[in-house]
């Protein structure tokens, strides 16, 4: 006697419905830098659907994933965006940022959820699409000029070969997001889930990166969502940066 009826029934029901989760609302950036002294940061939101209005919901979470409304808040928390139109979401401090470090970045997360209109199509379900952007708050002591493409101090980052792993020493006051590695700048990428290293901290590079060579390149994400490579030369177990290179742009990089 077969015991697969529940599985068969689930599969059958799934074929009866059409699920649609294509993003209609787009943001004008993939990460947010909030400098001390700025009253607010505005993000442009575009409804790319020329036929239907959407609701946009937004909120802020701290680095631990707790939803907050102080010291940073997203306004308005919910709004209607008409078909084919643009609007803005503002991030601003609801109170003075007391207690945040004055010598390094602080991390928050901006969440943005689009809520589609109800559909009249039978057996069709519209799913809400949600985006998560990193928000880096920079105290006055480490604010970077907009004309500066590379964060100061990146050239001082080092690697150490620790048994069969690379250990990175992020000596800068900035968060560093690494999205892939290469055995040299022109070599085939070694893919892994992106890793973010806190300011003035040490951490390991993912296990699938070999430590056998004397060169290694780490691809990181800039303030503007672009990708650059930290190109290291290694002597024995210690590696230092000899240059910072450019990487061909990739679409839909949200790191």
From TrEMBL:
Entry keyword set: Chaperone, Fimbrium biogenesis, Immunoglobulin domain, Periplasm, Signal
Signal peptide: 1-23
Family matches, as Pfam families: PapD_C, PapD_N
GO-annotated biological processes: cell wall organization
Main location: periplasm
Location of the protein in the cell: Periplasm
Occurrences of domain Pili assembly chaperone N-terminal (ranges): 25-142
Superkingdom field: Bacteria
GO annotation, cellular component aspect: outer membrane-bounded periplasmic space
Domain Pili assembly chaperone C-terminal, first and last residues per copy: 168-227
Family affiliation: Belongs to the periplasmic pilus chaperone family.
PANTHER family named in the record: FIMBRIAL CHAPARONE PROTEIN, PILUS ASSEMBLY CHAPERONE
Protein name per UniProt: P pilus assembly protein, chaperone PapD
Lineage of the organism: Bacteria, Pseudomonadati, Pseudomonadota, Gammaproteobacteria, Enterobacterales
